[in-house]
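A note from the maintainers: we've had questions about how concatenated examples are separated. There is no special marker in the raw files; a new sequence line simply starts the next protein. For clarity in this README we add a label.
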Amino acid sequence: MFTGNTARNYDSWYETKQGRFIDLVETEAAFDLVTLSPGARILDAGCGTGNFSIKLAEHGYLVTGIDLSSDMLNIARKKCMAKGLKVDLETMNIEHLLLPDNYFDAAFSMAAFEFIADPEPAYRELSRVVKPGGQILIGTINRDSLWGKTYMEEASKNPDSVFKHAYFKNLEELADVDRINLRASRQCLYVPPQAPEEYFDLEHETRLAADHTGGFIICLWQKPY
């Protein structure tokens, strides 16, 4: 769980060129996969400081964000208030959602499943609260990429690394959560972590996609009717 200084410093990464670029490509990849109309009711599971919840709200969706960290949620509330956005933010465990069945049009979880050992119970909960025909989108760090390997190496060397508690997955493992209802999958973030700063742009991202493994993977499922 991200608390205290970790929560307060979390958003500083988004202020770097690398952080802004990674956020951009992951966000674009996620929004390219979904088909939702303004006014759709969306759950953002593992919303952290609200970065993706804010993007969803700015698209005109009705957003509920949940996270285990009250410190992160307090930051999210301040950010939403500063932007004049109405987002319902609640402290909750993704594996035990205190939310009604068949309520949301879609559920998103971006960069949270790397901290979940067994993804199936969390996926079942997301599916439970989504309406029949609704969409479930999960994005996470790709274990088989240079990004995944870098984070795993960091965790092995640094006892204070947040990735000490990570359970990285590859695309096949993420898709295996529900092969029957899987509708689409994709990778992004082809620029490797050791690349110079000037490589973090869309031109290099597109060129490197030809022969690199994406650092971030996304799967989209549709709940059966």
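[label: protein 2]
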Amino acid sequence: MAQKPSGVRVYNVLFPVYMIFLFFPATWLVILPFNFAFDSLVLWLAMRHWQMQDKKGLWKKSILRVWLFGFTADLAGAGLIVLLYFVTNSLMDFTDFTTWEPLLVLPCVALAGWLIYLLDKKWAFGKTALDAVQRHKLALALAIFTAPYTMLIPTRLLYRF
């Protein structure tokens, strides 16, 4: 005799929902080009805002590293979420955006933004003709506008439970 399902659902998610792309490589086909385009847009707009010369040459020299460092920083932020999950040894329900969860996720977003800044300033723009102030400005713009703010989206909104 078959048993009926108990109706119990497990809503705990270890990673933010956007990290599902790690487990389903087909979504990389959407995420990778979107991230590349967004990094390119932020870089281009920042260069335009500060009226930098040779935008196309600078973009060509740095965009691949900017893009890869952005992913590295995002993964480090997600890794910190996992680490904090295990360190606190509590049942964190990422589908319920309570008052303490932003306190857990904000440092992870900040870590990713800080890493984006450091990696871009030192290595993405390190071999360009930019001076230190220009490298700082571009790295800061990328860190502010490309940090993984999607970590702050409650998964309950995405799952619509």
